C-alpha cells in the first residue's frame, strides 16, 4: 500500500486477496462464522450474536470485543449489510447508516479453488480512531495511514489462517 495522505473523511479502504485450493462452500463456512473469527485475529477477542440471532443474515447484529496495544479494549456492535452465501458477507460497524467501518469478504470460484478477498472501509461515522484524531488533528493522515497498514497486516494474516484451515 502506498502513502496516500488520506484523511478519515476520505473513507479510505484496504483490500487483501488470496487464492485458496478449496471450493467456495468450504471457504464460506469459515468466513461466515463470525464467532470463530477471534481465533484468526490478534485484535478481535470475542464475538456474540445479538437479539436472538444464531448466524448471519441481512440485518442480524453481533457484538465484537477488541483489544489493541495503543487503543485499549472496546466493544462494537455490527450489523450484517450483505449476505449472499458463497459470494459476499459484509457488515457495518456501529450505525449501519453512518458506520465507523464496513468490512466485507468476497468469494469467487477460480482455477478449481476460491479467490477470497477481505476489504474494509473506514468511516464515515466516528470510530475509536476518531478519538486519536481528535487528540492529535495535525497527525490525522499519519494516524489513518498507520491504522490502514495495521488492518492490511491483520487481514493478510486472517486470510492465511482461512487458507490453511480450508485446505486442511
From TrEMBL:
Note the superkingdom of the native organism: Bacteria
- Name the residues that span the membrane: none
Per the UniProt record, one Pfam family is Polyketide_cyc2
The protein depicted here goes by the name Cyclase
